[in-house]
Write a structure and sequence with these properties.
Elements: H1 6-80, H2 94-110
């Protein structure tokens, strides 16, 4: 038991060193894959954030343009027909304002 071959210790150290080198190579590869994955996730998150910001901006802009056009229509209607003035007041209920402008017109055309 006490008599080991001198090369046995060197062989074990070589095998351990080789296993350690293999483990280090695998760790480096996994680290590289993790960094690439993290980069892809960050880029995907940034792209999603930019898309959401663009969609919110575009959607808000469309609603603003639509509201501006509707307001312009209501102001022109109010200029033609005094009964529509309630449609352009800030406290007006939009559903009632629409009926106030449309109802007199419908009544006039039905006659």
């Amino acid at each position: 038991m006490g008599h080991e071959h001198p090369h046995t210790h060197t062989l074990l150290q070589g095998a351990e060193a080789s296993a350690l080198d293999g483990a280090l190579d695998e760790l480096r590869e996994l680290t590289s894959e993790l960094q690439a994955s993290r980069t892809r996730i960050v880029e995907a998150g940034d792209a999603a954030r930019r898309r959401i910001e663009r969609d919110l901006h575009d959607g808000a802009q469309q609603r603003f343009v639509t509201a501006s056009m509707l307001l312009g229509t209501l102001i022109r209607a109010a200029a033609r027909d005094g009964s529509c003035r309630a449609a352009v007041t800030p406290t007006a209920d939009p559903s009632k304002s629409e009926r106030a402008c449309v109802s007199p017109t419908r009544a006039a055309t039905a006659s």
